[in-house]
């Protein structure tokens, strides 16, 4: 198993200053944004800057380079893909989808562009933001049968969804996600795991609250998310730490895998009976640190 991406850092696609700092980032992946962070008038220059940067960094050490395209139903979407695919990004984030059909459209566009540019078929992964329209949450389970081989995972978002619902806020009185958004978050997690892909936690808005980010991220990993979106470079190390198993977790996982090496269905370890779901979880912990 390949270790999943712990941190996805957003960087505006038209900011030469911020793009210039990517090489020194500790993020596992950087998402060069062509959507919300770039005004309509600057989208052409952003496409050019992003494509040139990815091409120049091909094979270099550092974060994976992803691109957030514009929504598939806008005039910008195909221009985004046509501009950046030739440079060979690691992946494309797809915003504001209604369901797997939109992702399949992008998949087919990528197939054609990969072929045209002599790239490995399916080499560019996709990560849809799968909850930003009112229709989208109802279709999260459909990803399990959609057969999108390049699907890296699913992530979710609350801001565009609250706008789509006409809500004045997406938070409850305590400052936590309101019930609607907790439901959508859970469905995104289950939809991802049903499709056997990664579940990526949404952003943490308060960039000054490192303690809150750490606690929220640890809880997300405990629930089954494997990584998180960062909106500020200062959030990356905290996210990476939260989504990295502790030495104690790694050691216990190693012992669980060893205990099942005799090809048995259940084992006793530290006074507890463990079965195959425990083995699966142990292997996942080791995958998070690149051990399996």
UniProtKB/TrEMBL annotation:
<dbReference type="InterPro" id="IPR040442">
    <property type="entry name" value="Pyrv_kinase-like_dom_sf"/>
</dbReference>
<dbReference type="InterPro" id="IPR005000">
    <property type="entry name" value="Aldolase/citrate-lyase_domain"/>
</dbReference>
<feature type="domain" description="HpcH/HpaI aldolase/citrate lyase">
    <location>
        <begin position="6"/>
        <end position="233"/>
    </location>
</feature>
<dbReference type="Pfam" id="PF03328">
    <property type="entry name" value="HpcH_HpaI"/>
</dbReference>
<keyword id="KW-0460">Magnesium</keyword>
<dbReference type="InterPro" id="IPR015813">
    <property type="entry name" value="Pyrv/PenolPyrv_kinase-like_dom"/>
</dbReference>
<keyword id="KW-0456">Lyase</keyword>
<dbReference type="InterPro" id="IPR011206">
    <property type="entry name" value="Citrate_lyase_beta/mcl1/mcl2"/>
</dbReference>
<keyword id="KW-0479">Metal-binding</keyword>
<protein>
    <submittedName>
        <fullName>HpcH/HpaI aldolase/citrate lyase family protein</fullName>
    </submittedName>
</protein>
<dbReference type="GO" id="GO:0016829">
    <property type="term" value="F:lyase activity"/>
</dbReference>
């Amino acid at each position: 198993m390949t270790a999943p991406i712990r941190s996805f850092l957003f960087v505006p696609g038209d900011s030469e200053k911020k793009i210039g700092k990517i090489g020194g980032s500790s993020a596992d992946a950087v998402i060069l944004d062509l959507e919300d962070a770039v005004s309509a008038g600057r989208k052409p220059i952003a496409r050019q800057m992003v494509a040139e940067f990815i091409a120049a960094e091909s094979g270099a050490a550092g974060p994976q380079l992803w691109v957030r395209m514009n929504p598939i139903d806008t005039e910008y979407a195909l221009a985004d893909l046509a501009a950046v695919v030739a440079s060979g990004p690691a992946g494309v984030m797809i915003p504001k989808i209604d369901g797997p059909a939109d992702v399949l459209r992008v998949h087919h566009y990528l197939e054609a562009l990969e072929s045209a540019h002599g790239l490995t078929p399916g080499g560019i992964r996709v990560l849809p933001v799968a909850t930003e329209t009112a229709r989208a949450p109802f279709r999260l389970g459909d990803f399990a049968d959609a057969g999108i081989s390049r699907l890296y995972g699913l992530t979710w978002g609350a801001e565009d969804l609250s706008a789509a619902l006409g809500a004045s806020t997406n938070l409850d009185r305590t400052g936590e996600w309101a019930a609607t958004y907790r439901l959508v978050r859970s469905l995104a997690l289950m939809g991802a795991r049903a499709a056997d892909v990664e579940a990526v936690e949404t952003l943490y808005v308060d960039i000054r609250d490192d303690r809150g980010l750490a606690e929220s991220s640890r809880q997300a990993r405990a629930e089954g998310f494997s990584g998180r979106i960062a909106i500020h470079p200062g959030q990356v190390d905290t996210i990476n730490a939260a989504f990295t198993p502790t030495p104690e977790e790694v050691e216990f996982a190693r012992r669980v895998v060893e205990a099942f090496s005799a090809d048995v269905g259940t084992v006793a370890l530290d006074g507890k009976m463990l079965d195959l779901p425990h083995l699966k979880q142990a292997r996942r912990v080791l995958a998070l640190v690149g051990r399996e």
